[in-house]
Design goal:
Mean pLDDT: 75
Strand content: 15-25%
Number of strands: 14
Helix content: 40-55%
Number of domains: 3
Order of helices and strands: EEHHHHEEEEEEEEEEEEH
CATH architecture of the largest domain: Distorted Sandwich
């Protein structure tokens, strides 16, 4: 028995592409490429749903707001028009009412005087006036307006109240401004008092400095039985009385008293400073060493005991010599053993002398100011080397210049 074998061709399944639809809110990836690198951001389905819901809510709210805005605007416009129409109607009715009342008054006058109209015409006018009055009453009741009888009274009252409120408001504003000004004034007075106290301290310090300088000089001059009194020896006018500053008065007794005190101090300091310009305080040459003091000494040439009327300040030839006080040049030129010589009268009894100079910068009769350069250090006349012979005279009597040179103002 022969078996038949059949060849059955089996078809291979074709490579069919199956495409499945992904959900709308499936996880998504966003890839950013930069500089050869890629960054992946995952957006979950929940976040997508949330963002979509948020956009829907924002859009709905925007639409609702826009609608309500337009609707509100329409309602407001409608109400405004309605109010304007009502007011216009009221004005028109009031005009008609006034006109009719005038006609009625005129008619009554005609009826009373001439009797030309019968009762029907009069009633017709009365009926017209009554109709208008009823309309006005309805509008007044509906809009809560006042009646004509009290309109003028209430208007006058309203104006009075408005004027009163305005006056009260202005008064309150003025009171507030006054309060601010009073507070500012108090602060200003406190600041002014502080400034005055500071000026008083500085003036007192300056005055004490000047008085100390005068006291130190007087201690030295006491040896020659001399005493310098800046008040007695000044050119101050012979006048007196309390010092009253020419300043606006303020309603503060303490501040006024302090101002008078401070201005008196300033006036005194200014006066003393002016006097001190005529007193030779300070060093006439900046760089020096004391080679011969004031008073008795051994003469450098004959080695005998002698009286030295000044001080010898050894210094380099050509160094500048300055006058330490203002004054007038009495002498400038050669003076025997003094060599090149300068004498200056400073007033208040003070004179200074400068000898052995290399060169004189001032002439006789010339006025000099405090600190002016008047000569150069030299070795002219009877001198053993470059130095400045410096003398200070008070009322014609030589006094120790070192007492004046040590003072620093």
């Amino acid at each position: 028995m022969r078996r038949e074998i059949r060849k059955v061709k089996i078809k291979k399944p074709s490579m069919a592409r199956y495409s499945s639809r992904k959900p709308l809110f499936s996880n998504k990836e966003i890839i950013f490429r930069s500089g050869g690198r890629a960054k992946v951001f995952n957006i979950s389905s929940k976040l997508q749903v949330f963002l979509l819901a948020l956009l829907v809510i924002v859009g709905a709210w925007s639409a609702y707001s826009y609608y309500m805005y337009n609707k509100s605007d329409q309602i407001i416009s409608f109400k405004d028009r309605e109010l304007d129409e009502t007011r216009n109607a009221y004005v028109d009715l009031m005009t008609d009412f006034v006109a009719i009342h005038r006609n009625i008054s005129s008619m009554f006058t005609l009826i009373e005087d001439e009797k030309l109209q019968d009762e029907l015409n009069v009633n017709r006018y009365k009926q017209q006036a009554q109709v208008v009055e009823e309309k006005i009453k309805r509008i007044t009741d509906a809009t809560d307006w006042v009646e004509e009888e009290t309109l003028e009274e209430k208007t006058t009252l309203r104006d009075a109240l408005l004027q009163r409120d305005r006056a009260v408001s202005e008064r309150n504003e003025l009171l507030a401004k006054i309060e601010v000004l009073e507070d500012s004034l108090q602060k200003l007075e406190a600041s002014e008092m502080e400034i005055l106290n500071q000026v008083s301290r500085l003036s007192e310090k300056e005055m004490n400095k000047i008085k100390d300088a005068i006291s130190s000089v007087n201690k030295s001059m006491k040896k020659q039985n001399k005493y310098f009194n800046p008040l007695a020896n000044s050119k101050k006018n012979n006048a007196g009385g309390a010092y009253i500053p020419d300043v606006p008065a303020v309603n503060n007794e303490e501040l006024n008293k302090k101002m008078q005190e401070v201005f008196t101090q300033i006036n005194d300091v200014s006066y003393y400073k002016e006097v001190m310009k005529s007193v030779p305080f300070g060093k006439p040459v900046w760089s020096y060493w004391l080679s011969s003091p004031f008073g008795k000494r051994t003469d450098p040439f004959n080695k005998n005991s002698a009286t030295h009327k000044g001080v010898d300040l050894a210094s380099n030839k050509g160094n500048k010599v300055k006058t330490m006080a203002q004054g007038k040049v009495l002498r400038s030129g050669w003076n025997g053993g003094y060599g090149n010589f300068i004498e200056i009268d400073h007033g208040n009894g003070f004179k200074t002398r400068y000898a052995h100079l290399n060169k004189n910068y001032v002439k006789k009769g010339e006025y000099v100011k405090q600190g002016d350069t008047i000569a150069e250090v030299g070795s002219s006349g009877r001198s053993t080397g470059p130095h400045l012979h410096y003398e200070v005279l008070y009322n014609g009597v030589p006094v120790d210049p070192m007492a004046f040179m040590k003072v620093q103002l």
